[in-house]
Design brief:
Blueprint: E1 2-4, H1 10-21, E2 27-28, H2 34-43, E3 47-50, H3 56-67, E4 72-76, H4 84-92, E5 96-100, H5 104-116, H6 118-127
Parallel strand pairs: 1-2, 1-3, 3-4, 4-5
Helix pairs in contact: 1-5
Length: about 130
């Protein structure tokens, strides 16, 4: 699972713990060079991207993951700014699951439900690079 979240926040800890509880190894986006991040996106079975940040990487990661055919869990906040393109992608693309992260506990609970959902698991299996 490719995970791109603001570093050092409670949300990051909760997302990582939830992914690991479901058996997902984490490919975390850090300050790596862009070509390493693209390779991680290509190798990941699915992606979790925080789209409410000021980072231009969020929209690029979301678009790239969708172009690669990866299912995406987009974490967003009503308080954060999103580019119109990101809003359109989240709203119209069937491979995007939108989860509000305004309340971290609710967000992690919703993520837990998505990762445990057999329909999500089938979607990931069909889209996985080796699938």
């Amino acid at each position: 699972m490719y995970v791109s979240l603001p570093h050092g926040e409670r949300l990051e800890d909760g997302v990582k713990a939830t992914c690991q509880r479901h058996g997902w190894p984490i490919l975390a986006a850090r300050d790596e060079r862009s070509e390493l991040r693209l390779q991680a996106l290509r190798l990941a079975d699915a992606c979790i991207v925080h789209v409410s940040s000021a980072s231009p990487d969020a929209g690029a990661e979301l678009a790239f993951a969708l172009c690669e055919g990866r299912p995406v869990i987009a974490l967003w906040s009503r308080m954060g700014m999103k580019a119109p393109l990101v809003e359109d992608l989240m709203r119209t693309h069937p491979a995007v699951h939108r989860l509000s992260c305004d309340d971290i506990e609710e967000c992690v609970d919703a993520l837990d439900r998505v990762l445990g959902d057999p329909a999500w698991q089938r979607q990931v299996a069909r889209a996985a690079p080796s699938g």
